[in-house]
């Protein structure tokens, strides 16, 4: 690298124009290397990527089913108790409310 190019890279870094993603660079070099197609690490890396993808999908499914279950339980409770409950005007209206729950 000549001096002028180094200066422009340093200025660009100071301005925040170039963002170097080191993790992406290393992962791209390991996965898409041309000379290492027959090595043992290539299938292991691909299996690890697939396992991470399957894990993410399973977490999304678990969250979606949990939210759906909460909504269904809330709907069932509304059928039995309703959104609003009206009690008679008396001295024990709050105690009767707390006794039901």
Tally the helices: 4
What fraction strand? under 5%
* Average pLDDT figure: 74
Number of domains: 1
- Please provide the ordered H/E string of secondary-structure elements: HHHH
Gyration radius, rounded: 30 Å
Strand element count: 0
Main structural class: mainly alpha
Sequence stretches where pLDDT stays below 50 over 5 or more residues: none
Termini distance? 75 Å
Largest sheet: none
What fraction, in percent, of the residue positions are helical? Answer: over 70%
Shape: elongated
Explain what this protein looks like in three dimensions:
The chain is mainly α and 101 residues long. The chain has one domain (3-100). It has helices at 3-15, 22-31, 41-81, 93-100.
Keywords:
single chain; 101 residues; mainly alpha; 71% helix; elongated
State the gist of this model.
The protein has 101 residues and is mostly helical. It has one domain.
What's the helix and strand layout?
Blueprint: H1 3-15, H2 22-31, H3 41-81, H4 93-100
